[in-house]
Amino acid sequence: MEFFVFGCAALMILVGAVGVITRSHPVHAALSLVLTLFGVAVLFVAQEAHFLAAVQVIVYAGAIVVLFLFVIMLLGVDRVENLRTEPLTAQRPLAVIVSLGLIGILVAAFTTGSGALHERGEGINIPDLSTGTDANTTQLAESIFSKYVVAFEVTSVLLVVAVVGTVLLSRRIKSVEVETSK
Amino acid sequence: MIALDELLVDNLLWAPLLIVLLKVVVVFIVGLLATMLMVWFERKAIAGMQNRIGPNKTGPFGILQTLADGIKLFFKEDLIPNRSDRFVFALAPFLSFVPAFLAFAIIPLGGDFRNGNGGEVTWFGHVTKVQLADPPIGVLFALAISSIAVYGIMLAGWSSGSKYPLIGSVRASAQMVSYEAALGLSLASVLLVAGTLSTSGIVAAQTTITQWNVISTGFIPFIIFLIAATAELNRPPFDLVEAEQELVGGFNTEYSSIRFALFYLAEFMNTVTMSALIVTLFFGGPQPIAFGNFVLDIPLLPNALEGTFWLLAKVLVFLYIYIWFRATLPRLRYDQLMDLGWKVLIPGSLGWFMLLASQRLARQNDWNIFIITGSSVVVMVACYLLLQAAFSKSAREREIQGSMF
Fold first, then answer.
1. Alpha helix positions (H), B103-162
2. Nearest by CB: A62 against B85, B87, B147
3. Gap from B6 CA to chain A (nearest CA, Å)
4. pTM (two decimals)
5. Among the four given CATH numbers 3.30.499.10, 3.40.50.300, 1.20.120.1200, 3.20.20.140, the one describing domain A1-77
6. ipTM attached to this prediction
7. pLDDT value of position A79
Protein backbone atom coordinates (compact mmCIF):
# COMPACT_ATOMS: atom_id res chain seq x y z
CA MET A 1 0.00 0.00 0.00
CA GLU A 2 2.71 2.41 1.02
CA PHE A 3 4.78 1.53 -2.03
CA PHE A 4 1.76 2.07 -4.28
CA VAL A 5 1.13 5.54 -2.81
CA PHE A 6 4.81 6.40 -3.15
CA GLY A 7 4.79 5.24 -6.77
CA CYS A 8 1.77 7.35 -7.68
CA ALA A 9 3.12 10.44 -5.89
CA ALA A 10 6.57 10.02 -7.42
CA LEU A 11 5.01 9.70 -10.87
CA MET A 12 3.00 12.89 -10.26
CA ILE A 13 6.12 14.74 -9.14
CA LEU A 14 8.23 13.57 -12.08
CA VAL A 15 5.58 14.20 -14.72
CA GLY A 16 5.00 17.65 -13.24
CA ALA A 17 8.69 18.47 -13.03
CA VAL A 18 9.33 17.41 -16.62
CA GLY A 19 6.24 19.35 -17.67
CA VAL A 20 7.49 22.56 -16.06
CA ILE A 21 10.62 22.40 -18.18
CA THR A 22 9.26 21.07 -21.46
CA ARG A 23 5.92 22.92 -21.82
CA SER A 24 6.54 26.08 -23.79
CA HIS A 25 3.34 27.74 -22.59
CA PRO A 26 3.84 29.49 -19.23
CA VAL A 27 0.33 28.63 -17.96
CA HIS A 28 0.81 24.94 -18.75
CA ALA A 29 4.21 25.03 -17.05
CA ALA A 30 2.64 26.60 -13.95
CA LEU A 31 -0.05 23.91 -13.92
CA SER A 32 2.63 21.22 -14.12
CA LEU A 33 4.25 22.86 -11.11
CA VAL A 34 0.94 22.48 -9.25
CA LEU A 35 0.97 18.77 -10.09
CA THR A 36 4.46 18.46 -8.62
CA LEU A 37 3.44 20.33 -5.47
CA PHE A 38 0.46 18.04 -5.01
CA GLY A 39 2.69 15.00 -5.39
CA VAL A 40 4.96 16.34 -2.65
CA ALA A 41 1.90 16.94 -0.45
CA VAL A 42 0.83 13.31 -0.96
CA LEU A 43 4.30 12.17 0.07
CA PHE A 44 4.06 14.31 3.20
CA VAL A 45 0.74 12.66 4.10
CA ALA A 46 2.27 9.23 3.48
CA GLN A 47 4.99 10.15 5.99
CA GLU A 48 2.32 11.23 8.54
CA ALA A 49 3.36 14.87 8.17
CA HIS A 50 -0.24 16.01 7.76
CA PHE A 51 0.37 19.59 8.79
CA LEU A 52 3.19 20.05 6.28
CA ALA A 53 0.99 18.55 3.56
CA ALA A 54 -1.80 21.03 4.30
CA VAL A 55 0.57 23.96 4.44
CA GLN A 56 2.22 22.81 1.23
CA VAL A 57 -1.12 22.94 -0.57
CA ILE A 58 -2.32 26.17 1.06
CA VAL A 59 0.88 28.16 0.61
CA TYR A 60 2.47 26.81 -2.55
CA ALA A 61 -0.44 25.59 -4.66
CA GLY A 62 -3.02 27.97 -3.20
CA ALA A 63 -1.06 31.20 -3.03
CA ILE A 64 2.28 31.19 -4.83
CA VAL A 65 1.33 29.46 -8.09
CA VAL A 66 -1.93 31.44 -8.10
CA LEU A 67 0.21 34.58 -8.01
CA PHE A 68 2.35 33.21 -10.85
CA LEU A 69 -0.77 32.63 -12.92
CA PHE A 70 -2.11 36.03 -11.94
CA VAL A 71 1.03 37.73 -13.21
CA ILE A 72 1.02 35.65 -16.40
CA MET A 73 -2.60 36.61 -17.03
CA LEU A 74 -2.04 40.30 -16.33
CA LEU A 75 1.05 40.56 -18.53
CA GLY A 76 -0.49 38.38 -21.21
CA VAL A 77 1.16 35.40 -22.83
CA ASP A 78 0.26 36.28 -26.40
CA ARG A 79 3.59 37.99 -27.04
CA VAL A 80 5.75 35.27 -28.48
CA GLU A 81 9.24 35.58 -27.13
CA ASN A 82 12.03 33.94 -29.00
CA LEU A 83 13.64 31.52 -26.58
CA ARG A 84 16.67 31.13 -28.83
CA THR A 85 17.99 34.64 -28.20
CA GLU A 86 19.83 34.64 -24.92
CA PRO A 87 20.02 37.85 -22.87
CA LEU A 88 22.69 36.38 -20.58
CA THR A 89 25.03 34.23 -22.61
CA ALA A 90 26.71 32.61 -19.60
CA GLN A 91 23.32 31.40 -18.32
CA ARG A 92 23.17 27.97 -19.98
CA PRO A 93 26.68 26.67 -19.21
CA LEU A 94 26.31 28.02 -15.65
CA ALA A 95 22.97 26.19 -15.28
CA VAL A 96 24.62 22.92 -16.30
CA ILE A 97 27.42 23.39 -13.75
CA VAL A 98 25.04 24.36 -10.95
CA SER A 99 22.64 21.49 -11.57
CA LEU A 100 25.47 18.97 -11.77
CA GLY A 101 26.85 20.36 -8.50
CA LEU A 102 23.41 20.10 -6.88
CA ILE A 103 23.04 16.49 -7.99
CA GLY A 104 26.53 15.77 -6.62
CA ILE A 105 25.72 17.33 -3.24
CA LEU A 106 22.38 15.48 -2.98
CA VAL A 107 23.95 12.13 -3.88
CA ALA A 108 26.75 12.72 -1.37
CA ALA A 109 24.22 13.66 1.33
CA PHE A 110 22.10 10.58 0.67
CA THR A 111 25.04 8.18 0.62
CA THR A 112 26.46 9.51 3.89
CA GLY A 113 23.04 9.86 5.55
CA SER A 114 21.45 6.62 4.43
CA GLY A 115 23.06 4.62 7.22
CA ALA A 116 21.60 6.91 9.90
CA LEU A 117 18.12 6.66 8.38
CA HIS A 118 18.33 2.90 8.12
CA GLU A 119 19.43 2.28 11.68
CA ARG A 120 17.19 4.93 13.28
CA GLY A 121 20.14 5.50 15.55
CA GLU A 122 21.13 8.46 17.70
CA GLY A 123 21.50 10.83 14.79
CA ILE A 124 17.80 11.28 14.07
CA ASN A 125 15.35 11.60 16.88
CA ILE A 126 12.08 10.20 15.56
CA PRO A 127 9.25 11.97 17.36
CA ASP A 128 6.46 10.04 18.97
CA LEU A 129 3.30 10.54 16.95
CA SER A 130 1.08 8.37 19.09
CA THR A 131 0.19 11.10 21.60
CA GLY A 132 -2.93 12.29 19.80
CA THR A 133 -4.29 13.70 16.58
CA ASP A 134 -2.64 17.09 17.02
CA ALA A 135 0.82 15.76 17.94
CA ASN A 136 2.13 16.82 14.56
CA THR A 137 1.03 20.43 14.91
CA THR A 138 2.04 20.61 18.57
CA GLN A 139 5.59 19.46 17.89
CA LEU A 140 5.99 21.84 15.00
CA ALA A 141 4.64 24.74 17.05
CA GLU A 142 6.92 23.91 19.96
CA SER A 143 10.03 23.95 17.81
CA ILE A 144 9.02 27.09 15.88
CA PHE A 145 7.90 29.15 18.85
CA SER A 146 10.48 28.06 21.40
CA LYS A 147 13.66 26.66 19.94
CA TYR A 148 13.79 28.50 16.63
CA VAL A 149 11.71 31.54 17.54
CA VAL A 150 14.46 34.04 16.66
CA ALA A 151 15.02 32.54 13.21
CA PHE A 152 11.26 32.46 12.65
CA GLU A 153 10.77 36.11 13.63
CA VAL A 154 13.79 37.23 11.61
CA THR A 155 12.36 35.48 8.56
CA SER A 156 9.07 37.30 8.99
CA VAL A 157 10.92 40.61 9.32
CA LEU A 158 12.75 39.75 6.10
CA LEU A 159 9.45 39.21 4.32
CA VAL A 160 8.03 42.50 5.59
CA VAL A 161 11.20 44.30 4.51
CA ALA A 162 10.88 42.74 1.06
CA VAL A 163 7.24 43.83 0.73
CA VAL A 164 7.89 47.37 1.98
CA GLY A 165 10.95 47.64 -0.24
CA THR A 166 8.99 46.56 -3.30
CA VAL A 167 6.27 49.11 -2.65
CA LEU A 168 8.83 51.84 -2.05
CA LEU A 169 10.77 51.04 -5.22
CA SER A 170 7.70 50.83 -7.40
CA ARG A 171 6.17 54.08 -6.08
CA ARG A 172 9.31 56.19 -6.10
CA ILE A 173 9.40 57.03 -9.81
CA LYS A 174 6.04 58.74 -9.70
CA SER A 175 6.84 60.98 -6.72
CA VAL A 176 10.15 62.06 -8.29
CA GLU A 177 8.25 63.04 -11.44
CA VAL A 178 5.81 65.08 -9.39
CA GLU A 179 8.63 66.87 -7.61
CA THR A 180 10.38 67.81 -10.85
CA SER A 181 7.16 69.01 -12.42
CA LYS A 182 6.52 71.44 -9.57
CA MET B 1 -0.42 3.99 8.22
CA ILE B 2 -1.75 6.29 5.53
CA ALA B 3 -5.41 5.76 6.34
CA LEU B 4 -7.43 8.82 7.30
CA ASP B 5 -10.17 6.63 8.77
CA GLU B 6 -9.33 4.61 11.87
CA LEU B 7 -11.30 1.70 10.45
CA LEU B 8 -8.62 1.12 7.83
CA VAL B 9 -5.65 1.19 10.18
CA ASP B 10 -5.32 -2.45 11.20
CA ASN B 11 -5.62 -5.49 8.99
CA LEU B 12 -8.01 -4.78 6.15
CA LEU B 13 -11.36 -6.54 6.56
CA TRP B 14 -14.36 -6.53 4.29
CA ALA B 15 -16.81 -4.93 6.71
CA PRO B 16 -14.74 -1.78 7.44
CA LEU B 17 -13.91 -1.42 3.77
CA LEU B 18 -17.59 -1.65 2.87
CA ILE B 19 -18.50 0.87 5.58
CA VAL B 20 -15.97 3.35 4.21
CA LEU B 21 -17.15 2.77 0.63
CA LEU B 22 -20.74 3.24 1.76
CA LYS B 23 -19.78 6.47 3.46
CA VAL B 24 -18.12 7.74 0.27
CA VAL B 25 -21.17 6.93 -1.84
CA VAL B 26 -23.60 8.38 0.70
CA VAL B 27 -21.61 11.59 1.10
CA PHE B 28 -21.44 11.99 -2.68
CA ILE B 29 -25.17 11.42 -3.11
CA VAL B 30 -26.03 13.66 -0.17
CA GLY B 31 -23.82 16.33 -1.68
CA LEU B 32 -25.50 16.12 -5.07
CA LEU B 33 -28.99 16.05 -3.56
CA ALA B 34 -28.19 18.97 -1.26
CA THR B 35 -26.95 20.98 -4.23
CA MET B 36 -30.04 20.15 -6.25
CA LEU B 37 -32.34 21.17 -3.43
CA MET B 38 -30.27 24.27 -2.70
CA VAL B 39 -30.70 25.49 -6.29
CA TRP B 40 -34.45 24.98 -5.97
CA PHE B 41 -34.56 26.52 -2.50
CA GLU B 42 -32.69 29.60 -3.64
CA ARG B 43 -34.88 30.13 -6.68
CA LYS B 44 -38.03 29.62 -4.66
CA ALA B 45 -36.99 31.78 -1.70
CA ILE B 46 -35.73 34.61 -3.88
CA ALA B 47 -38.91 34.47 -5.92
CA GLY B 48 -40.87 34.81 -2.69
CA MET B 49 -38.80 37.80 -1.62
CA GLN B 50 -39.37 39.48 -4.99
CA ASN B 51 -43.12 38.78 -5.15
CA ARG B 52 -42.80 36.16 -7.85
CA ILE B 53 -43.84 32.52 -7.83
CA GLY B 54 -40.64 30.85 -8.99
CA PRO B 55 -40.40 27.32 -10.33
CA ASN B 56 -43.74 25.55 -9.79
CA LYS B 57 -44.33 23.26 -12.74
CA THR B 58 -41.98 20.29 -12.33
CA GLY B 59 -42.91 18.10 -9.41
CA PRO B 60 -44.52 19.32 -6.18
CA PHE B 61 -43.60 23.00 -5.60
CA GLY B 62 -41.29 22.76 -8.63
CA ILE B 63 -38.81 20.76 -6.60
CA LEU B 64 -37.65 18.76 -9.64
CA GLN B 65 -36.86 21.88 -11.67
CA THR B 66 -33.11 21.51 -11.11
CA LEU B 67 -33.20 17.91 -12.27
CA ALA B 68 -35.03 18.95 -15.43
CA ASP B 69 -32.54 21.74 -16.05
CA GLY B 70 -29.66 19.34 -15.50
CA ILE B 71 -31.02 16.80 -17.98
CA LYS B 72 -31.60 19.57 -20.51
CA LEU B 73 -28.04 20.86 -20.10
CA PHE B 74 -26.66 17.37 -20.73
CA PHE B 75 -28.17 17.33 -24.20
CA LYS B 76 -27.17 20.86 -25.18
CA GLU B 77 -24.45 21.44 -27.72
CA ASP B 78 -20.99 21.68 -26.23
CA LEU B 79 -19.29 24.74 -27.68
CA ILE B 80 -15.56 25.26 -27.52
CA PRO B 81 -14.40 28.71 -28.60
CA ASN B 82 -11.84 28.83 -31.39
CA ARG B 83 -9.33 30.92 -29.49
CA SER B 84 -9.55 28.86 -26.34
CA ASP B 85 -6.84 26.70 -24.87
CA ARG B 86 -8.62 23.39 -25.36
CA PHE B 87 -7.01 21.30 -22.65
CA VAL B 88 -7.31 23.90 -19.89
CA PHE B 89 -10.79 24.85 -21.08
CA ALA B 90 -11.93 21.25 -20.61
CA LEU B 91 -10.06 20.86 -17.32
CA ALA B 92 -11.34 24.00 -15.57
CA PRO B 93 -14.93 22.86 -14.79
CA PHE B 94 -13.60 19.77 -13.05
CA LEU B 95 -11.07 21.82 -11.11
CA SER B 96 -13.93 23.74 -9.59
CA PHE B 97 -16.32 20.79 -9.24
CA VAL B 98 -14.00 18.32 -7.48
CA PRO B 99 -12.81 20.61 -4.63
CA ALA B 100 -16.44 21.50 -3.93
CA PHE B 101 -17.11 17.85 -3.14
CA LEU B 102 -13.82 17.18 -1.37
CA ALA B 103 -14.44 19.82 1.28
CA PHE B 104 -17.66 18.05 2.26
CA ALA B 105 -15.64 15.04 3.41
CA ILE B 106 -14.47 16.56 6.70
CA ILE B 107 -17.85 17.85 7.93
CA PRO B 108 -19.26 15.77 10.81
CA LEU B 109 -22.69 14.88 9.41
CA GLY B 110 -24.16 13.47 12.57
CA GLY B 111 -23.33 11.13 15.38
CA ASP B 112 -23.62 11.35 19.11
CA PHE B 113 -21.38 14.02 20.61
CA ARG B 114 -23.09 14.03 24.03
CA ASN B 115 -21.41 12.91 27.24
CA GLY B 116 -17.98 12.91 25.66
CA ASN B 117 -18.86 10.33 23.04
CA GLY B 118 -16.81 12.15 20.42
CA GLY B 119 -19.35 11.53 17.66
CA GLU B 120 -18.64 7.85 17.42
CA VAL B 121 -21.34 5.40 16.40
CA THR B 122 -21.32 1.63 16.02
CA TRP B 123 -22.27 0.24 12.62
CA PHE B 124 -22.24 -3.52 12.08
CA GLY B 125 -20.04 -3.97 15.12
CA HIS B 126 -17.47 -1.39 14.05
CA VAL B 127 -16.95 1.94 15.77
CA THR B 128 -16.83 4.78 13.28
CA LYS B 129 -17.64 8.45 12.87
CA VAL B 130 -20.47 9.89 10.79
CA GLN B 131 -18.06 11.80 8.58
CA LEU B 132 -16.13 10.63 5.59
CA ALA B 133 -12.69 11.55 6.88
CA ASP B 134 -11.43 12.99 10.13
CA PRO B 135 -7.85 13.92 9.23
CA PRO B 136 -5.65 15.33 12.01
CA ILE B 137 -5.36 18.60 10.09
CA GLY B 138 -9.16 18.88 9.85
CA VAL B 139 -9.96 22.52 9.25
CA LEU B 140 -6.72 23.15 7.38
CA PHE B 141 -7.98 20.68 4.79
CA ALA B 142 -10.99 22.91 4.19
CA LEU B 143 -8.69 25.93 3.83
CA ALA B 144 -6.47 24.03 1.41
CA ILE B 145 -9.47 23.00 -0.66
CA SER B 146 -10.85 26.52 -0.75
CA SER B 147 -7.48 27.77 -1.94
CA ILE B 148 -7.52 25.14 -4.70
CA ALA B 149 -11.02 26.16 -5.77
CA VAL B 150 -9.65 29.40 -7.18
CA TYR B 151 -7.90 27.46 -9.97
CA GLY B 152 -11.15 26.40 -11.60
CA ILE B 153 -12.46 29.95 -11.92
CA MET B 154 -9.12 31.44 -12.83
CA LEU B 155 -8.27 28.94 -15.55
CA ALA B 156 -11.81 28.98 -16.92
CA GLY B 157 -11.60 32.70 -17.49
CA TRP B 158 -8.14 32.63 -18.95
CA SER B 159 -8.59 29.62 -21.23
CA SER B 160 -11.75 31.02 -22.81
CA GLY B 161 -9.55 33.33 -24.89
CA SER B 162 -11.93 36.24 -24.61
CA LYS B 163 -11.69 39.42 -22.61
CA TYR B 164 -14.72 39.50 -20.32
CA PRO B 165 -14.09 36.05 -18.86
CA LEU B 166 -10.44 37.05 -18.38
CA ILE B 167 -11.40 40.21 -16.47
CA GLY B 168 -13.83 38.19 -14.41
CA SER B 169 -11.28 35.58 -13.52
CA VAL B 170 -8.57 38.11 -12.65
CA ARG B 171 -11.05 39.78 -10.33
CA ALA B 172 -12.01 36.44 -8.86
CA SER B 173 -8.49 35.34 -8.13
CA ALA B 174 -7.57 38.67 -6.53
CA GLN B 175 -10.72 38.56 -4.43
CA MET B 176 -10.35 34.96 -3.31
CA VAL B 177 -6.66 35.29 -2.44
CA SER B 178 -7.36 38.47 -0.45
CA TYR B 179 -10.26 37.10 1.54
CA GLU B 180 -8.54 33.81 2.25
CA ALA B 181 -6.29 35.68 4.68
CA ALA B 182 -9.28 37.02 6.63
CA LEU B 183 -10.90 33.58 6.51
CA GLY B 184 -7.83 31.90 7.97
CA LEU B 185 -7.26 34.55 10.64
CA SER B 186 -10.83 34.47 11.92
CA LEU B 187 -10.62 30.69 11.98
CA ALA B 188 -7.50 30.93 14.12
CA SER B 189 -9.61 32.33 16.98
CA VAL B 190 -11.79 29.23 16.86
CA LEU B 191 -8.74 26.99 16.90
CA LEU B 192 -7.38 28.94 19.87
CA VAL B 193 -10.52 28.22 21.86
CA ALA B 194 -10.98 24.64 20.69
CA GLY B 195 -7.31 23.69 20.99
CA THR B 196 -7.53 21.19 18.15
CA LEU B 197 -7.59 21.20 14.36
CA SER B 198 -9.82 18.19 13.90
CA THR B 199 -13.42 19.03 12.99
CA SER B 200 -14.91 16.35 15.24
CA GLY B 201 -12.76 17.65 18.11
CA ILE B 202 -14.03 21.19 17.52
CA VAL B 203 -17.63 19.94 17.54
CA ALA B 204 -17.06 17.83 20.66
CA ALA B 205 -15.82 20.90 22.57
CA GLN B 206 -19.08 22.82 21.96
CA THR B 207 -21.56 21.02 24.22
CA THR B 208 -23.72 23.84 25.56
CA ILE B 209 -24.79 27.05 23.92
CA THR B 210 -22.31 29.15 25.90
CA GLN B 211 -19.54 26.86 24.69
CA TRP B 212 -20.47 27.34 21.06
CA ASN B 213 -17.55 29.07 19.45
CA VAL B 214 -19.74 31.90 18.19
CA ILE B 215 -20.13 32.97 21.84
CA SER B 216 -16.86 31.80 23.32
CA THR B 217 -14.84 33.66 20.69
CA GLY B 218 -17.01 36.73 21.03
CA PHE B 219 -19.02 37.06 17.79
CA ILE B 220 -16.38 39.07 15.91
CA PRO B 221 -14.57 36.06 14.38
CA PHE B 222 -17.93 34.64 13.33
CA ILE B 223 -18.96 37.84 11.58
CA ILE B 224 -15.59 38.12 9.84
CA PHE B 225 -15.74 34.47 8.85
CA LEU B 226 -19.25 34.87 7.45
CA ILE B 227 -18.25 37.89 5.35
CA ALA B 228 -14.99 36.32 4.17
CA ALA B 229 -16.78 33.06 3.35
CA THR B 230 -19.36 34.93 1.26
CA ALA B 231 -16.53 36.60 -0.64
CA GLU B 232 -14.73 33.28 -1.00
CA LEU B 233 -17.88 31.77 -2.48
CA ASN B 234 -18.23 34.70 -4.92
CA ARG B 235 -21.82 35.05 -3.82
CA PRO B 236 -23.69 38.35 -3.69
CA PRO B 237 -22.83 41.00 -2.53
CA PHE B 238 -19.33 39.90 -3.53
CA ASP B 239 -20.18 38.46 -6.96
CA LEU B 240 -18.01 40.83 -8.97
CA VAL B 241 -16.71 37.76 -10.71
CA GLU B 242 -19.92 37.48 -12.66
CA ALA B 243 -21.18 41.02 -12.57
CA GLU B 244 -23.72 40.69 -15.36
CA GLN B 245 -23.96 44.40 -16.06
CA GLU B 246 -20.23 44.76 -16.64
CA LEU B 247 -18.88 41.39 -17.71
CA VAL B 248 -21.69 39.66 -19.65
CA GLY B 249 -21.50 36.61 -17.38
CA GLY B 250 -18.03 36.64 -15.91
CA PHE B 251 -15.60 33.76 -16.02
CA ASN B 252 -18.13 31.28 -17.40
CA THR B 253 -19.37 33.40 -20.31
CA GLU B 254 -17.94 31.07 -22.96
CA TYR B 255 -19.08 27.87 -21.28
CA SER B 256 -22.14 25.97 -22.38
CA SER B 257 -23.97 22.70 -21.79
CA ILE B 258 -22.69 20.36 -19.11
CA ARG B 259 -19.46 22.27 -18.58
CA PHE B 260 -21.47 25.28 -17.51
CA ALA B 261 -23.63 23.04 -15.35
CA LEU B 262 -20.53 21.84 -13.50
CA PHE B 263 -19.61 25.42 -12.56
CA TYR B 264 -23.16 26.05 -11.48
CA LEU B 265 -23.21 22.88 -9.39
CA ALA B 266 -19.84 23.70 -7.82
CA GLU B 267 -21.03 27.15 -6.82
CA PHE B 268 -24.08 25.84 -4.98
CA MET B 269 -22.20 22.89 -3.57
CA ASN B 270 -19.63 25.32 -2.15
CA THR B 271 -22.42 27.32 -0.56
CA VAL B 272 -23.77 24.21 1.15
CA THR B 273 -20.29 23.15 2.27
CA MET B 274 -19.42 26.58 3.58
CA SER B 275 -22.68 26.77 5.56
CA ALA B 276 -21.94 23.36 7.03
CA LEU B 277 -18.42 24.50 7.88
CA ILE B 278 -19.72 27.63 9.62
CA VAL B 279 -22.13 25.48 11.64
CA THR B 280 -19.32 23.05 12.50
CA LEU B 281 -16.92 25.76 13.56
CA PHE B 282 -19.20 28.20 15.35
CA PHE B 283 -22.54 26.56 16.11
CA GLY B 284 -21.65 23.13 17.43
CA GLY B 285 -22.36 21.12 14.27
CA PRO B 286 -24.51 18.11 15.14
CA GLN B 287 -24.68 19.05 18.84
CA PRO B 288 -28.20 19.64 20.17
CA ILE B 289 -29.17 23.01 21.60
CA ALA B 290 -28.36 22.86 25.33
CA PHE B 291 -28.32 25.36 28.19
CA GLY B 292 -26.23 24.12 31.11
CA ASN B 293 -27.69 20.75 32.03
CA PHE B 294 -30.88 21.19 30.04
CA VAL B 295 -30.71 19.52 26.63
CA LEU B 296 -33.34 20.11 23.97
CA ASP B 297 -33.81 16.42 23.26
CA ILE B 298 -36.03 15.09 20.51
CA PRO B 299 -37.97 12.14 21.88
CA LEU B 300 -38.00 8.75 20.13
CA LEU B 301 -35.02 9.54 17.92
CA PRO B 302 -31.66 7.93 18.77
CA ASN B 303 -29.02 10.49 19.64
CA ALA B 304 -26.86 9.73 16.59
CA LEU B 305 -29.71 10.43 14.15
CA GLU B 306 -30.66 13.49 16.12
CA GLY B 307 -27.21 14.92 15.37
CA THR B 308 -27.97 14.81 11.66
CA PHE B 309 -31.28 16.55 12.28
CA TRP B 310 -29.66 19.36 14.27
CA LEU B 311 -26.94 19.82 11.65
CA LEU B 312 -29.56 20.01 8.91
CA ALA B 313 -31.61 22.57 10.83
CA LYS B 314 -28.60 24.78 11.51
CA VAL B 315 -27.29 24.51 7.94
CA LEU B 316 -30.72 25.48 6.57
CA VAL B 317 -30.60 28.69 8.59
CA PHE B 318 -27.31 29.65 6.97
CA LEU B 319 -28.44 28.69 3.49
CA TYR B 320 -31.42 30.98 4.03
CA ILE B 321 -29.10 33.75 5.23
CA TYR B 322 -27.05 33.44 2.05
CA ILE B 323 -30.19 33.72 -0.08
CA TRP B 324 -31.28 36.66 2.03
CA PHE B 325 -27.93 38.37 1.39
CA ARG B 326 -28.44 37.91 -2.32
CA ALA B 327 -31.92 39.36 -2.30
CA THR B 328 -31.06 42.29 -0.03
CA LEU B 329 -27.56 43.63 -0.56
CA PRO B 330 -26.35 45.49 -3.66
CA ARG B 331 -23.02 44.48 -5.16
CA LEU B 332 -19.89 46.17 -3.81
CA ARG B 333 -17.63 48.22 -6.04
CA TYR B 334 -14.23 46.64 -6.66
CA ASP B 335 -12.22 49.13 -4.55
CA GLN B 336 -14.78 48.85 -1.73
CA LEU B 337 -14.33 45.09 -1.83
CA MET B 338 -10.55 45.33 -1.55
CA ASP B 339 -10.76 48.03 1.16
CA LEU B 340 -13.13 45.89 3.21
CA GLY B 341 -10.90 42.85 2.90
CA TRP B 342 -7.51 44.39 3.55
CA LYS B 343 -8.25 47.39 5.75
CA VAL B 344 -11.12 46.13 7.91
CA LEU B 345 -11.37 42.35 8.01
CA ILE B 346 -7.69 41.38 8.19
CA PRO B 347 -6.62 43.91 10.87
CA GLY B 348 -9.86 43.26 12.74
CA SER B 349 -9.44 39.50 12.88
CA LEU B 350 -5.76 39.81 13.73
CA GLY B 351 -6.50 42.22 16.59
CA TRP B 352 -9.29 40.04 17.95
CA PHE B 353 -7.06 36.99 17.79
CA MET B 354 -4.37 38.78 19.82
CA LEU B 355 -6.99 39.83 22.38
CA LEU B 356 -8.20 36.25 22.80
CA ALA B 357 -4.63 34.98 23.02
CA SER B 358 -3.69 37.51 25.72
CA GLN B 359 -6.78 36.60 27.74
CA ARG B 360 -5.96 32.94 27.48
CA LEU B 361 -2.42 33.58 28.66
CA ALA B 362 -3.74 35.68 31.56
CA ARG B 363 -6.08 32.90 32.62
CA GLN B 364 -3.30 30.32 32.48
CA ASN B 365 -0.93 32.42 34.58
CA ASP B 366 -3.57 33.79 37.00
CA TRP B 367 -2.99 37.38 36.04
CA ASN B 368 -5.66 39.99 36.62
CA ILE B 369 -8.00 39.52 33.68
CA PHE B 370 -9.30 43.10 33.76
CA ILE B 371 -5.86 44.68 33.60
CA ILE B 372 -4.89 42.38 30.74
CA THR B 373 -8.07 43.10 28.81
CA GLY B 374 -7.77 46.81 29.48
CA SER B 375 -4.18 47.02 28.33
CA SER B 376 -4.89 44.91 25.22
CA VAL B 377 -7.79 47.18 24.35
CA VAL B 378 -5.51 50.22 24.76
CA VAL B 379 -2.94 48.60 22.46
CA MET B 380 -5.66 47.75 19.93
CA VAL B 381 -7.02 51.28 19.95
CA ALA B 382 -3.51 52.63 19.47
CA CYS B 383 -2.99 50.25 16.54
CA TYR B 384 -6.34 51.28 15.07
CA LEU B 385 -5.45 54.97 15.31
CA LEU B 386 -2.05 54.30 13.70
CA LEU B 387 -3.76 52.39 10.91
CA GLN B 388 -6.25 55.18 10.36
CA ALA B 389 -3.43 57.74 10.29
CA ALA B 390 -1.63 55.64 7.67
CA PHE B 391 -4.79 55.33 5.57
CA SER B 392 -5.56 59.05 5.67
CA LYS B 393 -1.94 59.94 4.88
CA SER B 394 -1.86 57.59 1.90
CA ALA B 395 -5.21 58.90 0.71
CA ARG B 396 -3.95 62.48 0.92
CA GLU B 397 -0.77 61.63 -0.96
CA ARG B 398 -2.69 59.78 -3.59
CA GLU B 399 -4.78 62.88 -4.12
CA ILE B 400 -1.68 64.98 -4.63
CA GLN B 401 0.38 62.60 -6.73
CA GLY B 402 -2.18 60.46 -8.43
CA SER B 403 -2.23 56.76 -7.87
CA MET B 404 0.29 54.49 -9.50
CA PHE B 405 -2.13 51.64 -9.69
1. 139-159
2. B147
3. 11
4. 0.84
5. 1.20.120.1200
6. 0.78
7. 56
